[in-house]
Write a structure and sequence with these properties.
Maf protein, binds inosine 5'-triphosphate, six-stranded mixed sheet, alpha/beta, 200 residues
């Protein structure tokens, strides 16, 4: 059986693959969008992570006939009323410009005291099996933001996010450490039961 990871974000794809490999899903060949023909994708317009993840996974499954997983994720900042949230990838206006997105969030927090810098990474992961079930799960990872970037691992907002209970930014964690507690690790591990059925 093939399983399609439906994302255009190479770093996200790498993490999804890594988490699934660590779970040892047998009998499933994990492929990415680069391995299938192109298909039209609807814009991400849902107000919540779950809605966007489900829409992305449905598009991919309908176009390819393959069981497909999509991940919609982002960072919800307490002092910004949960923003950038579903807009995390394009907060500055330019999709995928991590540098500009981080700069804008930090500028918006310039008057926020250090003790009110709480935030959570959120990941909704949807699994759509053509002619079968749809499953949507959610993982959250709480922490707080710092004003200067630290670390070179990960992607996106990792350099300014310090997970609860730690002192290193999530860009300073080893990949396996990030996966063990991240929003994405939590969400994907919640799909493992469904994935084993696919291989079944
Ligand atoms: P696809 O929709 O093709 O999967 P995308 O990058 O547009 O790719 P999202 O809309 O889900 O995906 O945006 C996710 C953004 O949230 C991502 O660009 C990062 O800025 C941020 N983000 C998500 N997970 C993250 C993580 O583990 N570490 C740091 N930033 C993360």
């Amino acid at each position: 059986t093939k399983l399609l990871l439906a994302t255009r974000n190479a770093k996200k794809l790498g993490e999804l693959r890594r988490i699934l490999v660590a779970e040892g899903i047998e009998g499933v060949e994990v492929i990415g969008l680069a391995d299938v023909s192109e298909f039209p994708e609807a814009p991400e317009t849902a107000p919540d992570f779950e809605g966007n993840a489900l829409a992305k996974a449905r598009d991919a499954a309908a176009a390819t006939g393959l069981p497909s997983i999509a991940d919609d994720s982002g960072i919800a900042v307490d002092a910004l009323n949960g923003m950038p949230g579903v807009l995390s990838a394009r907060w500055s206006g330019k999709h995928g410009d991590d540098e500009a997105n981080l700069d804008l969030v930090l500028a918006q927090l310039s008057d926020t005291p250090d003790e009110r810098m709480g935030a959570a990474f959120v990941c909704a992961a949807a699994l759509v099996v053509p002619g079968g079930d749809e499953t949507v799960v959610r993982g959250e990872w709480r922490g707080s933001l710092i004003r200067e970037r630290r670390g070179a691992n990960g992607f996106g907002y990792d350099p300014i996010f310090v997970p609860e209970g730690g002192t290193r930014s999530s860009a300073e964690l080893e990949p396996s450490e990030k996966d063990a507690s991240s929003h994405r690790g939590l969400a994907l591990r919640a799909l493992v039961g469904e994935l084993r059925k696919l291989a079944g």
